[in-house]
Fold:
Amino acid sequence: AGGASAPPDPILERLWNLYREDRIAEVRAAIAERQASDPNWKPPQELVTALETVEARRRLVNASDSGQWQTVLSVATESPSLLTCTNVDVLWRVAEAFARTDQPTRTRDVYTYLLTNCANPAERLATVQKALTLLPEQQVTDLLQFERTTGDTPDDFSSIRDELARRRVERASLDSKATASAEDLAAVERLIRNTNEAGPVLILGW
Structure:
């Protein structure tokens, strides 16, 4: 009928609903079924891309959970659309994969991207906490410069600074050639006043 727009396609609505419910295998099966009965039918590119993204994320998470770090990195390379602030968990996993494959500079780059671009304060703090377990101290210290002290949701990275101070004091207590700065000692003393744990107290006791 000339310029009339096509009626909404009920199968497409069903596919998108399945997709939104995360029933990805069913979406794939329905697409295959539709293509078998109508070889000229193609799913919209938007849906294809959405499916590929979900499947790539699953592959990446599974590889990360089972310690297959090379696979994590190859999936990330094939699916750069995953690497955004909406998928902070994926960024963390990629950063860890770089660290576990001896590429700490790349790990730092991922964390730098996150701290430069992603706004959620809880995710930002968690990012620096992860850095603390995976990166050399100097690189963690470098990341602290991205702390946001202004705005509606400022960061509070003081717990990370305290932990770095505690490590330096601990090192000084074990190594007669190392010395701890007055600043670090003050930070650790403050920690001890606010904690009931024996650890920091023992460190200062040397």
Remarks:
- DSSP finds eleven helices and no strands in the chain.
